[in-house]
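Thread: Newbie trying to understand structure tokens

Hi all, I'm a second-year student working on a class project, and my supervisor (Dr. K.) asked me to get a predicted structure for one chain before our next meeting. I've only ever worked with sequences, so writing a 3D structure as a token string is new to me. If someone could post the tokens and maybe explain what I'm looking at, I'd be very grateful. Here's the chain:
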Amino acid sequence: MTKKHNFYAGPSIMPQFTIDKTIEALKDFAGSGLSIMEISHRSKEFQAVMDEAQALTKELLKIPDGYSVLFLGGGASTQFLMIPYNLMNKKSAYLNTGPWATKAMKEAKLFGEMVEVASSADKDFSYIPKGYEIPADADYFHITTNNTIKGTEILEDLDVAMPLIADMSSDIFSRPIDVSKYGIIYAGDQKNLGPAGATIVIIKEDILGNVDRDIPTMLDYRTHIAKGSMFNTPPVMPVFSALQTLIWLKDQGGIPAIEKIKNEKADLLYNEIDRNKLFVGTVAREDRSRMNICFVMNEEYKDLEGAFLEFATGKGMIGIKGHRSVGGFRASCYNALPIESVQALVDCMQEFEAAH
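---
Reply by user tm_fold:
Sure, no problem. This is what the structure looks like when written as tokens:
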């Protein structure tokens, strides 16, 4: 059987360690004789899972005191709503770098004045805006660090005068970050952490409690901080799987080691895109994502797009079709993707080039 190379954008490839440990827990969790699917979230066995997942997140990301780590349901899209609900009194500021940022901005408009400080929509989100000004009276500034659909990425920790809020759904744990520069970091688990169903939120506690409105209990971050993510039943199995990935990340050498191999994978594929006469990248080189690598056929070979997709799929490349709004191809090179899979895609591109 042809080996499969998983380039899906999410849900996406998981470490084999995470898959194996989850399978074991589905059959018998922590020697309890029960499946992880049927264990009480109030049991001491699962409490230990939650405690370790929060502690390992703090260790791997070097999270300073004064921050809480939450594992919540609802996906990252629910955070689009929770953030302005908890933080926005009169004005918020957003950097618009793609469809997910646009969705977050839509929710913020429900709570007051939402200022779009800059946008790359004029060039189909193919670059990261620079040189913009953030209103000094904004309650917070929101960025989306990686543009999953279009393929751009912010690779620095910004210095701003208000709480910095970052959607890191597709690049969290892929590079060291200075958490102290952020008010909230949030990410859906289904790209670099675990199966769909859980969302990780890293939040600076002292930015809360400053809005005038009443906040519904389930949408108030303070509710979940006070109860250690256990106010209601958390996504038990996804949290367990996320813990296994955190253990795996530590065993790989931590975030610096992950960043090194991430850059090697990205350089390998981008070098081939730039060399191969059949293909061309779709975004500004200085803003290229290291996670979601987007490319299309060169214009003169456009009629070969379908043929290449069929050829690559036959070689075991799964999930490389570009997002429906973009077309072309997208190789999502998340942390769990081995460099051998990227090399296999490069080999596939070279073989197709030789034939055409």
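A couple of things are worth pointing out once you decode it. The two ends are 26 Å apart (CA to CA). Residues 254-275 form the longest helix (22 residues). Feel free to ask follow-ups in this thread.
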